[in-house]
Amino acid sequence: MLAILGTVVWAADVKSAPPKAVLSGKIVIQEGKPAQVETADHKTVLLDGDDDTRKILGDTRLNGFQVEARGHFTAPGHFLIDPIYTHHLLVRKDGKLKLITYWCNVCAIRAYTPGPCVCCQRETTLDLRDPDQPDPNQP
Ligand SMILES: [Zn+2]
């Protein structure tokens, strides 16, 4: 009986865990429109994510970049990016994948979402970083 229950739970787990996928292509971010990716085979995929990821997806400075997102498809043409702390939305620049970060050069504070600096409230600047590069602001 226990074995049977175990099997049922296991099967349910497999069913609820969507297969991981990597989506790459050109990101299109326009004011007031949901962010999307145009894949190399000219398909359009709408992007979604958690609240902080959505802030990045609303940053028109990223429009037109080649991106690579990790997550899974929730429906055909709908892609949910993994939570922001996993840094699974990367930008391809100069042939390398870069982290999307935001920098306040007044306070030397780095953030992972766009918007005013947490300290001085000035608008932060988009700063694409090499993920392997050590960051003095990150312990
Ligand atoms: Zn600041």
Structure characteristics:
binds zinc ion; alpha+beta; 9 strands; 16% helix; disordered N terminus
Can you walk me through this structure?
The radius of gyration is 18 Å and the shape is globular. The protein has a single domain, classed as Nucleic acid-binding proteins (OB fold (Dihydrolipoamide Acetyltransferase, E2P)). The chain has helices at 2-16, 51-57, and strands at 21-28, 36-38, 44-48, 66-75, 78-81, 89-93, 96-104, 109-111, 125-129. Strand 7 (96-104) and strand 8 (109-111) form a beta hairpin. It has 2 helices and 9 strands, in the order H-E-E-E-H-E-E-E-E-E-E. It is α+β, with helices and mostly antiparallel strands. Strands 1-2-3-5-4 form a 5-stranded mixed beta barrel. The longest helix is centred in the first third of the chain and has 15 residues, at 2-16. Zinc ion binds next to loops.
Q: Nutshell version of this structure?
A:
This protein is of the alpha+beta class and 139 residues long.
List the SSEs and their pairings:
Blueprint: H1 2-16, E1 21-28, E2 36-38, E3 44-48, H2 51-57, E4 66-75, E5 78-81, E6 89-93, E7 96-104, E8 109-111, E9 125-129
Parallel strand pairs: 3-5
Antiparallel strand pairs: 1-2, 1-4, 2-3, 4-5, 4-6, 6-7, 7-8, 7-9
The structure holds zinc ion.
